[in-house]
Design a protein that fits this description.
Number of strands: 0
Oligomer: single chain
Strand content: under 5%
Largest sheet: none
Distance between the termini: 34 Å
Radius of gyration: 19 Å
Structural class: mainly alpha
Shape: globular
């Protein structure tokens, strides 16, 4: 098949690398993912499904007692889910001051820092949220994404490897590993890791998109299109194909042209 896109130009494209990398600490994927700290809502009732409603509910509880760790956790997570990232980081920072050593708060605060692009600080905070003798594989994966955002890809992969020793075959960690290789332009290894992730019955839409992107970057666009739309309803398949085309054509945009906010991400574990 004739190569449809210039691989060298794509990998050299600042906009493409930024599009892949910017989601490392956030949750801007097309599919909603679980948080590293799990459910932080009240122990006796489920969190409201609507993010804006959750902000109202947990915000009221937080304002009634800002030093309550559970209230701060619920409010911080609701704010993050609703896209209010700066406010989430501020709430969780104050909560960690009021509750020093609370690992659940530190984990959530570290994620909020990553959401806001404070990757070194996020890495440092997450290091305090678990310990070498009792590591959390989800946090190891998030620390890896922070390192990838800082360009420290070899270090990042050591964190993914540690996470996979605890949670073998986890598709979210494998997806992060694959895109780590993509960021360092090792596309065959990126594809290998992403195919492992894609083979998991727990693989999300994000994994499918990431694999399609890496396959497309190697010039196999027809195969990439088949991957991103396989076994999906027509509307979702069309959305995935549109996403893939957008990502693969970013480097063709004229210099100085406005960039759309990318929807691809390399972030928290599924």
């Amino acid at each position: 098949m004739r190569q449809r896109f210039s691989l060298a130009r794509l990998l050299a494209s600042t906009s493409l690398v930024a599009a892949v990398a910017m989601g490392l600490g956030g949750c801007t994927a097309m599919s909603k993912l679980s948080d590293v700290t799990g459910s932080v809502g009240p122990r006796t009732e489920a969190a409201p499904a609507d993010p804006a409603r959750a902000v109202d509910v947990y915000g009221e509880r937080y304002r009634a007692n800002p030093k309550d760790a559970d209230a701060a956790l619920g409010y911080g997570q609701a704010l993050r889910a609703n896209g209010q990232r700066a406010q989430a980081a501020a709430v969780l920072e104050q909560a960690t001051i009021a509750n020093p050593g609370n690992k659940a708060l530190l984990a959530q605060y570290g994620r909020a820092l990553a959401d806001n692009g404070n990757f070194q600080q996020a890495f440092d905070v997450l290091s305090k949220a678990h310990s070498p003798d009792n590591p959390d594989w989800r946090l190891l994966s998030v620390q890896g994404t922070a390192l990838d955002q800082m360009g420290r890809h070899d270090e990042a992969r050591s964190y993914y490897a540690s996470a996979l020793r605890i949670a073998p075959g986890d598709p979210g960690v494998l997806s992060n590993l694959g895109l780590s290789y993509m960021l360092s332009k090792d596309l065959p290894k990126a594809e290998e890791a992403l195919r492992q992730a894609y083979a998991s019955p727990r693989a999300s839409t994000r994994v499918r998109q990431n694999l399609g992107l890496v396959v497309g970057l190697q010039g196999r666009f027809a195969e990439a299109e088949t991957i991103v739309k396989a076994d999906l309803p027509p509307d979702q398949a069309a959305a995935n194909v549109a996403y893939l085309k957008e990502m693969l054509s970013r480097s063709d945009a004229p210099r100085g042209a406005p960039k759309r906010t990318p929807v691809a991400s390399l972030s928290q574990s599924d």
